[in-house]
Specification:
876 residues; 42% helix; binds serine; 6-stranded antiparallel beta barrel; 9-stranded mixed sheet; alpha+beta; single chain
Length: 876
C-alpha cells in the first residue's frame, strides 16, 4: 500500500463519518509561540481554546510537520525524521473518547488490515475511562492495554496551550526488532512502534506544561504518521525503506555512488541526505529562507548538514538541487506547492550550497587543526570559542561542529559557545536600540498615569487645539520652554504623527497666545504618549497653555505618498518574486522610501524596471486607499500582512490599497494612489544575508529624479552629436570604432617591435653557441615586453635582455628560449643582478621575467650586470 493510498483511506474513512477535509497549514505557523508547525492540531489551537469557532465540528487533515527536536537523531536511527506527514481527525467539542477509539481501531484493523494480535494500546495511568473504553467497548484484551505516565501519555504542544491525556496504538514489528515484552511498548520501544496518538484534549497548560484549567469543551486531536504506517504496511525494515523516503535514499545513494544497506556509516549519511533533502524542500516551499536566526537557521542547519554528508561520502558536485528535484518528483502531486515553486526551490538550494561549499573546506581545515590541538593537549572538549568562530565566520551550524568533534571523540564546550552567542546577540541588540532612555521613562510614566496619554487626531485633521500637559528639557520635566530652547512638548491631543511603522514623525508648528515653537520631529515617548521635539522661535510655551498645533501639510503629504507607495512596492515584490519577499524593514520619508525585504539574490535590471513600471501603473490606475480598525483575528482572516516580530493589540488598523494590498498599519496614507503622482525605483542592493533593499522616489522628488536623468541624457546626446533616442546606438558605434582603433594601434606597435627586433638581431652576439641580445630601448613596459617576446620568437636559441628608463623609474625584461630554459637557464636568475641595481623587485617565469625600480640612472649598469650573468650562464 503506497503513501497515497494510506492518505486516501484515512481521509475517505473519516469523510464517511462526517469530517470535513481541510488543507494542511503552512510549516510556518500562524502562532508566534511556535517556530515551526509540529502537529496537526497547531492550526486548530484557537478552536480548542474556544477563541474562534471551527468551520465544522469534525475535521481531518494531512498535515506537514517539522520537529526540530529530532534533528540530531536523524540518520542515527531508522525511524526519526525532521519532516513528516501527520494524518489527523479532530473533534471540536463533538465526539469524544469512545468514538475516537472505536474508529481508530476499526480503521487500523479493517481499513488497513492489521492483525489485532499485533496491536497494543497505552492509556494515561489515571485515565480509567479510556481503559474501560478500550477493553469493554472496543474489545481489546486487558493485558494489551498498558498504563503509562505523564512523560508518555500526556500530550502538549511543548509550549503553553491546549493539552490532555492520550492513548497510543502500537504495532508489534516482530522478532527482527528485538525481544518481546509482556509490557509491550513499555518494555521495548524498538520492537513496538507507535503508529497513532489519540489526544483527549480537555485541558489548558501553562508555560511549564502544567494543566491549569479545563478547556471550554472536550475535544479530540489524533495524529498518525504516514511514514510509520507505510513502514508497517509495506513490511519495510525502516521508514527509510518505504515508498517515498526509499525514493529519497535511492537518489542520495546514486548521487554519492554508494549503496544503501552495506555500511552503517554510509547508511547514516544517506538517511540524513534523504530526510533533510525532503524537509528543506518543504520549508523553502513554505517561504522559509536560510538565515542565521529562527526558522531560517533551522533550514540552514539541515541544508548544510545534508551537504556535508554528501561531501563526506565523496561527492563534490552540487547535491541539494538533486534532492530537491527528487522531492518534487515524489511528492509534488500530493503537495502542489512543490511543483509550483520548483524553480524557486532549486535556486535557493543552489545558492545556499554554493555559499556553504565556499567556506566548508577552510572551516574544516581550522576545525581539524583545533581538534588536533585539543587532543594533543589532552583536552576532552573543543573550546566554545572555536565553535563560535566556525559559526560566525564559516557558517558552521553548531551541530555540524559537534558532530565532527564527536567523530573525533571530543565534546564541545557548549556553555562557552552559548555565552559567546548571547554576547553577540546582546551587541546586536544594543546596536539596534535607539535612544530609549530609562530616565525619560521615569519622567514620562507619571505623565501618562496622570493624563492618560495623547489622543491622536491626525488621520482626519491637520490642525487642532490642544493643551500642553508636560514639557521635557534634557530629559527632565520643566514648566516652561523659552525662546531658543529645544524641548519636548507633550499635548493632550495632537495631529502630529509620531514616528512609527517606518514612517518618520511629522513636522509643523505649535503656537500659543504667548509663543510659537517649530516642531522638528515627533516621536512616541512611551506607547500612547507623543513627544513633539521643538525649538521655540518666539516667546514661550508653558505647561497648561492652550495651543494650536498644525502639521506642515507638504511634509505630511510627502510622507503619505511615500507610505502608500511602500505598500504597493511590498505587494508588487510578493507578487513578482513570491510570498517569501516579505517586508523586513522600511523607511518612509517625504518624497522617498526605502524598503528591505527577504530575497536571496539580486534583482536584475529587467526585474527592477518591471517593478518600477508596475508601481507607476498602480498610481495611474487611481486605486482607492481605505483604512479601518478591526479585530486582529478578522484582519488575519482576510490575509492582511503583519510584520513579523511586531506586537499587535486585539484591535488593529488595516490599510487596503485597491483590491490587492492589505496590511496592518498605523501610518498615514494618500486617499487615492494617483495622488502619489510619480513614483520610480531608483536603487536595488543587498543589506545582509538574504536581505535586499529597494529605494524609490515619489511625487516631486520622483519627477526631479526623472528630469535629472533626462537632462543627463540630453547632455550625453549633445556630446555625441545625436538625439536622446539615438544616443545609445551612436555610442555603441563610437565604442566599436574605439576598439577598432585600439586594435590597429596594437598591430602597428607589434610591427614596429618586429622591425626593431630585426635590427637588434643583427647586433646579437654569439655566446657559447647561443645568441645574446642586450639593448636599451625607452619604450613603455608593455612595448618592452612585446619587443622581448618578438626577439625570442626569432631566435632558435638565445637570451634577450632589454631595459628602459623614464622619469624616476626603470625596467628590465629578460626572455629566454625554450631550449635554454630546459638547460636550466632561468630568466628570473638573469634578471636578478640587474633588478637589484634598479632598487626594485620583480618576478616572472623561467622564460620571461620583468622587474622595475626607481634607480633610472643606473639602467645601463643594470643591463650590463644581467648581460654578464647571461654570458656566464651560456658559457658555463
Ligand atoms: N497532537 C498529537 C501529536 O502530535 C496528536 O495529533 O502527536
Amino acid at each position: 500500500m503506497d503513501s497515497n493510498e494510506i492518505r486516501e483511506r484515512f481521509l475517505a474513512y473519516f469523510e464517511e463519518r462526517g469530517h470535513q477535509r481541510l488543507p494542511s497549514s503552512s510549516l510556518v505557523p500562524n502562532d508566534p509561540t511556535l517556530l515551526l508547525t509540529n502537529a496537526g492540531m497547531n492550526q486548530f489551537k484557537p478552536y480548542f481554546l474556544g477563541e474562534q469557532s471551527p468551520p465544522s465540528a469534525r475535521a481531518i487533515t494531512v498535515q506537514k510537520c517539522f520537529r526540530t527536536t529530532d534533528i540530531d537523531e536523524v540518520g542515527k536511527t531508522s525511524r526519526h525524521l525532521t519532516f513528516f506527514e501527520m494524518l489527523g481527525n479532530f473533534s471540536f467539542g463533538d465526539y469524544y473518547k469512545s468514538a475516537a477509539a472505536a474508529w481508530a481501531w476499526e480503521l487500523v484493523t479493517e481499513g488497513y488490515g492489521l492483525d489485532p494480535d499485533r496491536l497494543w494500546v497505552t492509556v494515561f495511568e489515571t485515565d480509567q475511562e479510556a481503559r474501560d473504553i478500550w477493553q469493554d467497548e472496543v474489545g481489546v484484551r486487558p493485558e494489551r492495554v498498558i498504563d503509562r505516565g505523564r512523560k508518555d501519555n500526556f500530550w502538549s504542544m511543548g509550549v503553553a496551550g491546549p493539552c490532555g491525556p492520550c492513548s497510543e496504538i502500537f504495532v508489534d514489528l516482530g522478532e527482527a526488532f528485538g525481544a518481546s515484552s509482556d509490557q509491550g511498548p513499555a518494555g521495548n520501544e524498538d520492537r513496538y512502534l507507535e503508529i497513532w496518538n489519540l489526544v483527549f484534549m480537555q485541558n489548558q497548560c501553562n508555560a511549564a506544561i502544567e494543566p491549569v484549567e479545563e478547556l471550554p469543551r472536550k475535544n479530540i486531536d489524533t495524529g498518525a504518521g504516514v511514514e510509520r504506517l507505510a513502514m508497517v504496511l509495506q513490511g519495510a525494515a525502516s521508514i527509510y525503506e518505504t515508498d517515498t523516503l526509499g525514493g529519497m535514499v535511492a537518489r542520495a545513494a546514486e548521487l554519492v555512488e554508494k549503496s544503501y544497506g552495506s555500511d552503517p556509516r554510509v547508511d547514516r549519511g544517506l538517511r540524513i541526505m534523504a530526510d533533510h533533502g525532503r524537509s528543506l524542500s518543504f520549508l523553502i516551499a513554505d517561504g522559509v529562507l536560510p538565515s542565521n536566526e529562527g526558522r531560517g537557521y533551522v533550514l540552514r542547519r539541515i541544508m548544510r548538514r545534508a551537504v556535508r554528508q554528501a561531501r563526506l561520502l565523496g561527492r563534490e558536485s552540487p547535491t541539494l538541487v538533486h534532492l530537491v528535484d527528487q522531492t518534487v518528483d515524489l511528492m509534488g502531486k500530493a503537495y502542489p506547492e512543490l511543483l509550483e515553486r520548483r524553480d524557486f526551490l532549486v535556486e535557493v538550494a543552489t545558492w545556499e550550497e554554493e555559499r556553504f561549499s565556499a567556506t566548508l573546506r577552510q572551516g574544516l581545515t581550522l576545525l581539524d587543526q583545533e581538534i588536533g590541538a585539543t587532543r594533543s593537549g589532552g583536552g576532552k572538549a573543543l573550546p566554545g570559542s572555536v565553535a563560535f568562530k566556525l559559526h560566525d565566520t564559516f557558517g558552521f551550524p553548531i551541530d555540524i561542529t559537534m558532530e565532527i568533534a564527536s567523530e573525533a571523540g571530543l565534546d564541545v564546550d557548549a556553555a562557552e559557545f552559548e555565552s559567546l552567542m548571547s554576547e553577540q546577540r546582546e551587541r546586536a541588540r544594543a546596536a539596534r536600540t535607539t535612544d530609549i532612555d530609562s530616565s525619560v521613562t521615569d519622567v514620562a510614566e507619571p505623565i501618562l498615569a496622570e493624563h492618560g496619554g495623547t489622543e491622536f487626531l491626525g488621520y482626519e485633521h491637520l490642525a487642532t487645539s490642544a493643551r500642553v500637559i508636560a514639557i521635557l528639557k534634557g530629559g527632565l520635566a520643566a514648566v516652561v520652554a523659552g525662546e531658543g530652547d529645544t524641548a519636548e512638548i507633550v499635548l493632550d491631543r495632537t495631529v502630529f504623527y509620531a514616528e512609527g511603522g517606518g514612517q518618520v514623525g511629522d513636522r509643523g508648528l505649535i503656537q500659543s497666545a504667548s509663543g510659537s515653537a517649530e516642531v522638528i520631529d515627533t516621536h512616541r515617548i512611551l506607547p500612547g504618549l507623543t513627544g513633539h521635539r521643538v525649538t521655540v522661535n518666539a516667546g514661550e510655551i508653558r505647561v497648561g497653555d492652550e495651543v494650536e498645533g498644525a502639521v506642515d501639510p507638504d511634509w505630511r503629504e510627502g510622507s503619505q505618498k511615500a507610505h502608500t507607495a511602500t505598500h504597493i512596492v511590498h505587494w508588487i515584490l510578493r507578487d513578482r518574486l513570491g510570498e517569501h519577499a516579505k517586508q523586513a524593514g522600511s523607511l518612509v520619508e517625504p518624497g522617498r522610501l526605502r524598503f528591505d525585504f527577504n530575497h536571496f539574490e539580486a534583482l536584475n535590471d529587467d526585474q527592477v524596471a518591471d517593478i518600477s513600471s508596475e508601481l507607476q501603473h498602480r498610481v495611474f490606475s487611481d486605486d482607492g486607499v481605505r483604512a479601518y480598525e478591526t479585530s486582529y483575528e478578522y484582519a488575519r482572516s482576510i490575509g492582511a500582512m503583519a510584520i513579523f516580530g511586531e506586537k499587535y493589540g486585539d484591535f488593529v488598523r488595516v490599510v487596503e490599497v485597491g483590491e490587492y494590498s492589505k496590511e496592518l498599519c498605523g501610518g498615514t496614507h494618500v486617499p487615492h494612489t494617483s495622488r502619489i503622482g510619480v513614483s520610480v525605483i531608483t536603487a536595488e542592493g543587498s543589506v545582509g544575508a538574504n536581505l535586499r533593499r529597494v529605494e524609490a522616489l515619489v511625487g516631486r522628488d520622483g519627477l526631479g529624479h526623472l528630469e535629472r536623468r533626462a537632462a543627463a541624457l540630453e547632455k550625453i546626446a549633445g556630446a555625441l552629436k545625436s538625439t536622446p533616442d539615438e544616443a545609445y546606438e551612436r555610442l555603441e558605434k563610437l565604442l566599436e570604432t574605439h576598439r577598432d582603433m585600439e586594435r590597429r594601434i596594437g598591430e602597428i606597435e607589434r610591427k614596429d617591435a618586429e622591425r626593431e627586433a630585426v635590427t637588434l638581431l643583427e647586433n646579437a652576439v654569439d655566446v657559447g653557441g647561443a645568441r645574446l641580445v642586450v639593448a636599451r630601448r625607452d619604450l613603455d613596459v608593455d612595448g618592452l615586453r612585446s619587443l622581448a617576446q618578438a626577439l625570442r620568437s626569432k631566435l632558435d636559441s638565445g637570451v634577450v635582455v632589454l631595459g628602459r628608463a623614464g622619469e624616476g623609474k626603470a625596467n628590465l625584461v629578460v626572455a629566454v628560449t625554450k631550449d635554454l630554459v630546459e638547460r636550466g637557464i632561468s630568466a628570473k636568475d638573469v634578471l636578478a643582478p640587474g633588478s637589484s641595481l634598479l632598487g626594485g623587485g620583480g618576478g616572472g617565469k623561467p622564460d620571461l621575467a620583468i622587474s622595475g625600480g626607481p634607480n633610472a640612472d643606473r639602467i645601463d649598469e643594470a643591463l650590463e650586470a644581467s648581460a654578464r650573468l647571461a654570458r656566464s650562464a651560456l658559457t658555463g
